[in-house]
Amino acid sequence: MTITNILVFFIFVLPFTFAELRVGFYTSTCPGAETIVREVVQRHFNQDNSIVGGLLRLHFHDCFVRGCDASILIDPTRNRTSEKNAGPNRTARGFEIIDDAKAVLEQECPLRVSCADIIALATRDAVEMAGGIRYRIPTGRKDGLLSDPELVKLPSPSLSVSGALQFFTAKGLTLEDMVTLLGGHTVGFAHCSMFQNRLSAIQGGVNPSMDPTLEARLEQICELRRAPNSDPLVFLDQNTSFTFDNEFYNQMILKRGVLHIDQQLALDPLSMDMVQNLATDDSLFQEKFANAMIKMGSIGVLDENEGEVRSNCRAFNRPL
């Protein structure tokens, strides 16, 4: 293990604070909280190291709706829909990891640790287990009291850089934040339905923005989609698919981007220089990613009067 992998990255001036968040929020109320979450994530990671991409996506999809309030975890009922019913969330995964951590935490510290904090901590731990640096994150989030699929408006993978950027700036994030956070795709997957329109066999021509060897491989994989109910998965980083590193950006420079928005990062003048810098320096990427994750994790933080700490991450404490 390199020193990068075990680095505890100190960001900004201690103690870090965003709204009501602070590092060490549970020191007195549930001192073992972060250790419990880490142990649960480690157990799942040992069984399936693809959970890293799933947790990153879960965290992103949660924060980009009403803020980081665990609204994505709410199950629909006979009388009420939830964010899980929204199209972009139907393939979300990692819910059972949050459930397992919550079950242990409720035994140790009932109604102390929010589901929103569990998502943030579990994602951080999974990234480290895949090779990322360990960064300290402020906690103290509250869980939301609303989960509405109509509010789920997420950037499409078919957007341009400027088009996607509008979603990020609306949440207080910058172009650099966006380019860095999309680097999380280094451990991600995508269904063929999310990019198949980029393949020449579908377009009826040549796609100059995609490496021909990659395109041929993707066409072969996505041929299986013709089978009923089939939508194969492919790696977004074709080289170090399970390692959290900066290789994603090198793949984009080589025109080996699977998703349109990923490939555009290396082609658009707005972002191409950032991609070049991140591709040549893994430590730089790791540090910027930690910064961007902390910043993203502060979006829409609820206070005591606006949220709650759920006893079950899949249901509000006071069902409507």
UniProtKB/TrEMBL annotation:
Key words of the record: Calcium, Disulfide bond, Heme, Hydrogen peroxide, Iron, Metal-binding, Oxidoreductase, Peroxidase, Secreted, Signal
Disulfide links within the chain: 30-109, 63-68, 115-313, 192-222
Annotated positions binding substrate: 155
Site (Transition state stabilizer) residue list: 57
Alphabetized InterPro entries for the sequence: Haem_peroxidase, Haem_peroxidase_sf, Peroxidase_pln, Peroxidases_AS, Peroxidases_heam-ligand_BS, Secretory_peroxidase
Xref: PROSITE patterns: PEROXIDASE_1, PEROXIDASE_2, PEROXIDASE_4
Any one GO molecular-function label of the UniProt entry: lactoperoxidase activity
The enzyme's E.C. designation: 1.11.1.7
Note describing how the cofactor binds: Binds 2 calcium ions per subunit.
Secretion signal, residue range per the UniProt entry: 1-19
Binding site for Ca(2+) 2: 186, 237, 240, 245
Membrane-crossing residue ranges in chain numbering: none
Catalytic activity: 2 a phenolic donor + H2O2 = 2 a phenolic radical donor + 2 H2O
Residues reported in the UniProt entry to bind Ca(2+) 1: 62, 65, 67, 69, 71, 83
Family that this chain belongs to: Belongs to the peroxidase family. Ascorbate peroxidase subfamily. Belongs to the peroxidase family. Classical plant (class III) peroxidase subfamily.
Name under which the protein is recorded: Peroxidase
Organism ancestry: Eukaryota, Viridiplantae, Streptophyta, Embryophyta, Tracheophyta
